[in-house]
Structure formats: structure tokens, C-alpha cells
Amino acid sequence: MGRNLVPSSVLASSIHPTVYRTLIALIIWFAVAAWALFYRSNDDGLLLTMATVLLMIGLAIPLALAQVWRRHRSRLYDGPAPFAEWRNHEVQVGQSHLKGTHAMIDMLLPLAAVAVGLTAIGIVFLISTPSGGA
Question: How many CB atoms are closer than 10 A to CB 34?
Fold first, then answer.
């Protein structure tokens, strides 16, 4: 049991920036789909605005933290490994380790499912209501 199954040399300590960029794109997709497919009257605007504000706050906090980290990181930091290399290595997640691909799927799948689902529901809403949902 004393054998180390994950050598520390292949262990990444953080999520790759490409995953974060994809997360941002999915959140923007979610907001655009909500406005494009569900905005029908002035009454809907307030609800959609509040949903958009919550999504933007969810984006702003991690982006602000990333900006602080970038300004105060060590000069010895080389930057992230290439994505193709990162996804095949183990990533430290909490107190556990996951393969990079699995960590990425765990992060992106819920938001991707919501964005795709919202888009599908919006398209069905447009098709099923007379005069395009108006």
C-alpha cells in the first residue's frame, strides 16, 4: 500500500485555461439563448435581466480572481502545459486526482447540458406557439 500510483511529475495542480474559456463560452451561450428565444414582451425583460446579472456575477468573480493571480504569480511560472498534454495527465481536484479529460467533463457537462437544453426548449417554444411565440 506504500506504492505511489500517481507520480508527482505528471500531476497538474490546476485546470487548463482552455477549460475556463469553454466555460465562459457556455455561460454566454446560455444568456444569449435565453434572450433570443424567450424575450417576447417588456414583462419578460426584467426576469431575463436578473438571470443575466446572476450569470455575469458568476463570470466576474472567477475572472477577477484570475486577474489577481496573474498579477502576483511567480516569475518562475512557465505558463500552462499544452492542452493535449494537460488532458492526459492527472489533475488535482480537491483532495483527489482525476485525469484531465475527466475533470474537464465534470466541469463542463452540467453547464453544456443546461445551455443545449435551454436552446432546445426555446426552439420548441418558437415552433409550437402561434406567430413565433409573440
Answer: 20
Name the residue ranges covered by the structural domains of the chain.
15-70+88-133
pLDDT tens, N- to C-terminus, the chain (134 residues): 444 454 444 566 788 889 989 999 999 999 999 999 888 877 888 889 999 999 999 889 888 988 888 888 777 677 788 888 888 889 888 888 889 999 999 999 999 999 999 999 999 988 998 765 55
Element (H, E) at 92: strand 90-93
Cell 455561460, residue? 27
**pTM of the predicted model, to two decimals?**
0.78
By C-alpha distance, which of 48, 63, 36 is closest to 132?
36
